[in-house]
Each structure stands twice: as C-alpha cells, then as structure tokens.
Specification:
The protein is of the alpha/beta class and about 180 residues long. The chain has a domain of about 120 residues: Rossmann fold (3-Layer(aba) Sandwich). It is about 25% helix and about 35% strand. It has five helices and nine strands; from the N terminus they run ββααβαββββαβαβ. The strands form two sheets. Strands 5-6-4-3-7-8-9 form a seven-stranded mixed β-sheet, with helices on both faces. Strand 3, helix 3 and strand 4 form a beta-alpha-beta unit. The longest helix is centred in the first third of the chain and has 15 residues. The chain starts with 9 loop residues before the first strand and ends with a strand. Pathway: Purine metabolism; AMP biosynthesis via salvage pathway; AMP from adenine: step 1/1. It is found in: Cytoplasm. It catalyses: AMP + diphosphate = 5-phospho-alpha-D-ribose 1-diphosphate + adenine. Homodimer. Its EC number is 2.4.2.7.
Amino acid sequence: MSFDLDARIRKVPDFPKPGILFYDITSILLDPEAFSYCIERMVERYKDRPVNAVAAVESRGFLFAAPFAHRMGLPLVLVRKKGKLPGKTRARRFQLEYGEDVIEVHEADVHEGQRILLVDDLVATGGTLKAAAELLVECGAEVEEIFCVIGLPFLKFREYLAGIPVTTLIDYEHE
C-alpha cells in the first residue's frame, strides 16, 4: 500500500528549544486515514507474531498501542512516569539529555515469560525505550520488539537498543 505518511507529520522547527526539529504525531491523530494507516501497518506486522501483550510508553505511545491492543485482543501494560500508578510498582531511573527521569509499571501487570511488544510514538536516542525494556525484563517478561511510528536513526537508537529489534513506519535521517 502506497501512503505518504511524511506528508501527514507536522514538522515544528525550534521546538522544544532552538535547533531542534520536532516531529509532531498529533497531525496523524487529526487525520483518520493516517491514523488508520499506522494501526493497520501494526496489525499486518504483528498478527502472526508470538506477542501476547503490548506495553506502551507514556503518553503518546498509549495513542497507538491502545487501538492496536484492542484490535489484537491483547492486554495493554502502561509504562508511566513516576507517581502516576496507584498500585505496587517497579521503577527504573534513566538518563535524559539534560537530567534524568523515572518510569514505573504495575508489578501485577507483567507476567513471567510474557512476550511483549513495546510501543511508543517516536524513537530518538532510545533512552526511554531502553529503560522501559529493562523494566519489563526485570519483571520477568521478554521484549520481542519495539515499534514506533517515527524513527530518528541519525541519533543512533539502533546501536543503543542493540539486541532488541526496532520497527518504525518512517525514518528521518537528519533534522
């Protein structure tokens, strides 16, 4: 299927700071055809794969993972920022470009031997996704693959996430 996803992605220069080109997926959400395209590509890719749960990174990852998990009849595990989950959680601290952050998952939501597809909207350096994958593995799951709508391979996320297959619908080779 030929579809111009690039034309549906808004590019915002100098956001969130000067010199950064921000790839905004909200324009995909405004376009039902583009949003449907993304979900259908996910279904095509993973319909015959040995995945039995989907984990989504807060918050834009939820937007793509939830309809996909629903379509596939799979449980959806939320990977959230610290302090957002009310139950017993497990946490992972990780480095950001300018500081650090913490993500958490409900311990009861991840099961030993579960084969998880990890979803986010965009992968840049891979720091958040690596922390999420490590957290899921620490809880006993296997991360089968990472899926993102947008990839920025010039930031070397594949090297940083070595050992975990990463699939993207569209890659941008430079800002």
